[in-house]
Amino acid sequence: MSQPAAKVSLTGIKPSGEVHLGNLVGAIRPALRLAQQYDSLYFIADYHALTSIRDPELLRHYSRSVAASWLAAGLDPKRTTFYVQSDIPEIFELNWVLSCVTGKGLMNRAHAYKAARDRNVEAGEDPDVGVNMGLYNYPILMAVDILIMETDVVPVGKDQVQHVEYAADIAGSFNHLYGDSYSFKVPQAVIPETGTGDVLPGLDGRKMSKSYDNTIPLFLPENKLKKLVRRIPTDSTPVEAPKDPDSSAVFQILEQFAPASAADVVADTRKRLEAGGMGWGELKNVLFEVLNAELAPMRERYDDYMRPGSELDEVLARGAERARERATRVLSSVRKAVGVA
Fold first, then answer.
1. What's the pLDDT at 260?
2. What is the Cα 224 distance to its own chain's centre?
3. Is 18 exposed, middle or buried (0-12, 13-18, 19+ CB in 10 A)?
4. Which of 30, 48, 56, 149 is 20 to 30 Å from the Cα of 248, by its Cα?
């Protein structure tokens, strides 16, 4: 008796900056764990990045850098399909088809568009100033990314669930009109279990985020990594005084990032802080050593992928070939269903 086919999961990765520690803990690790349960696809969403990045060289760099980062962090291209969005032209033909079955009212309610309008209104500006149609239509392109790969589940953070709901709504609209000829799978959102790693503190104590410019990039040289760790703010509690580890951004990063192999280090550090006699400077040294021990092998793999002539382009080309097999099959059915083939 044949085994049922594994469900398909899809993860989109927007290349809008250098990958940082918060990305690794809050997004990459949970997504890679889910890959063990599904027929998984990962893609670099370079066309999505065009809504905000206007420098072509920077976009090319970020696309390669983000792809290299995921591979260095453990994504296995032999077990998954890994590709760049712009290498799948079928996505952009389907984007038009699905635009024609999507209500404008649905787009008006999209979180990113509403947030931009609200900021403009608060500033006394025209509600749509600075809003491009890429931002406005973003949820449709994201729906296409999902639907064209016959996706069952999409791992997302809580703030991204609406995008998957929109994909389901758009699939439903198409299926209602053309379902006698072809029906899309209706995807579901999956929120990965991330534990305390949901929110990793940044260099200023706030959530680590590119928008706050407070990140610790994953692949900094060792000396620069140490300097950034030393910059994390601490209070003036004397070395000999007991300290609350959970109130310290340095300890939170240590606890949330440290691999299982460093569990004893984390537990011992907590005891020493609570007992007194361990200063913040020593805690930062512990954090640096744990970070560097974990990141050094990844840094080496990343540097290898980023070198000219590395296997990165070949890996992405093989992934695009596999992804296009799915996309071509789906688009062919859609074209017949709507009457253009």
1. 86
2. 24
3. middle
4. 30
Evaluate whether 139 touches 109 at the Cβ level (below 8 Å): no
Give the integer Cα–Cα distance in Å for 241 and 33: 40
| pLDDT tens, position by position, 162-203 | 999 999 999 999 999 999 999 999 999 998 765 544 578 888
Q: Determine which helix (DSSP H) or strand (DSSP E) holds 11, and give its type and residue range.
A: strand 8-13
> What pLDDT is recorded for position 54?
94
CB atoms within 10 A of CB 70: 25
Q: Which two tokens stand for residue 147?
A: 């639907």
Q: Tell me which H or E stretch contains 103.
A: none
pTM strictly above 0.85: yes
Q: Are 218 and 28 in contact (CB under 8 A)?
A: no
Q: Which of 52, 139, 145, 45 is nearest to 92 (CA)?
A: 145
Token match 């440290």: residue?
Answer: 258
| In contact, 23 and 196? CB cutoff 8 Å | no
Q: Which helix (H) or strand (E) holds 252?
A: helix 249-257
Q: What is the DSSP string of 161-195?
A: HHHHHHHHHHHHHHHHHHTTT------EEE----G
Give the residue ranges of the chain where pLDDT is below 70: 1-4, 193-198
Secondary-structure percent of the chain, ordered helix, strand, coil, rounded to 5: 60, 10, 35
Strand partners, 43: 12, 83
d(CA 88, CA 321): 9
**Distance from the Cα of residue 39 to its chain's centroid:** 18
